[in-house]
């Protein structure tokens, strides 16, 4: 084995290694690391879409468009993940009005890069009172909300 020659092609390809004593060929897969030029993605927009869905968008563009999105209900406890092509996604089928923690990392076919800063997303919506908060009706708005929770 000391005289083996191994070359490293791209992730999708395989290479052959041969030995001088047996002349046999062995396929070896090589997975290149995520490029050093890839900027760690940051969540730049997030919002609750409805009671069980949140929308997130991230950037900046740095030569890749495939990402892994991890999320969970506590920061650091990543229960779920999904692969996304592009720079935004909507996560559906969450527990009703429950916010989540999300983080995003660039990925290639073989591995996931460094995750960006986690973000707390999708706090519950306040109920619609029919009154937009304005200078003269703020007191009415607050009392209406108070009555809903009592």
From TrEMBL:
CDD domains: FN3. It comes from the Bacteria. PROSITE patterns: FN3. Residues 40-126 form the Fibronectin type-III domain. This is Fibronectin type-III domain-containing protein. It comes from Candidatus Shapirobacteria bacterium GW2011_GWE1_38_10.
